[in-house]
Amino acid sequence: MTPLRYSDADHLDAHQFLVEEAALLDRRDLAGWLRLLTDDVRYLMPVRVATARGAGFDTLADMAHFDEDLYALRKRVDRFATEHAWTEDPPSRTRHFITNVLTFRAEAEGEGELRVESSLLLFRSRGDNREADLLSAGRTDLLRRAGGGELRLARREVLVDETVLRTQNLAIFL
């Protein structure tokens, strides 16, 4: 599969989508972020494992840090507004750095769908006395055009670059 050229309109739209999504997350505009998702969205982060070369896998089958649909994502966002969201009190300060964006049109994807690969470096700080977290990951997204032609996130798979996460919790969106 050949990536779209950087001047291709679909690639530019996909890149702009990712940058604007990152800005929403960094501003903690989670209601705005939810509006970027399709009704059938799937948002997952498989558990990575260290295996011998040639093992043929580096994630655990049927095990994920999260595997959520729109209902679960909405519930998680709703919970942040309650007094029971202690994992985000005080709220995290994040900065999503999105780079190495590659966009593909593939026959396996539906009409108006793009497969987008990107690299993510997330900076996160919380409170005054904890060291900041850095989380590095690769993401594979399926972006789908909605009725008005704007892109929506239909699927995201996040593959972190470490097998043991050093962050206190995953109460943030990647």
Description:
This protein is of the alpha+beta class and 174 residues long. The protein has one domain: Nuclear Transport Factor 2, Chain: A (Roll). 20% of the residues lie in helices and 40% in strands. It has helices at residues 9-26, 30-34, 70-80, and strands spanning 37-48, 59-68, 93-104, 113-125, 133-145, 151-160. β5 and β6 form a beta hairpin. The two termini are 26 Å apart. The mean pLDDT is 87.
N-C termini distance: 26 Å
Q: Considering DSSP H and I runs of 4 or more, what fraction of the residues is helical?
A: 10-25%
Q: What class, by secondary structure content?
A: alpha+beta
Domain module tally = 1
Bin the strand percentage: 35-45%
CATH C-level name:
Alpha Beta
SS field, number of helical segments = 3
Radius of gyration: 17 Å
Task: Report the strand count.
Answer: 6
Multimeric status of the protein: single chain
Concise description?
This protein is an alpha+beta fold and 174 residues long.
Which characteristics define this entry?
174 residues, 6-stranded mixed β-sheet, globular, 20% helix, Nuclear Transport Factor 2, Chain: A, alpha+beta, single chain
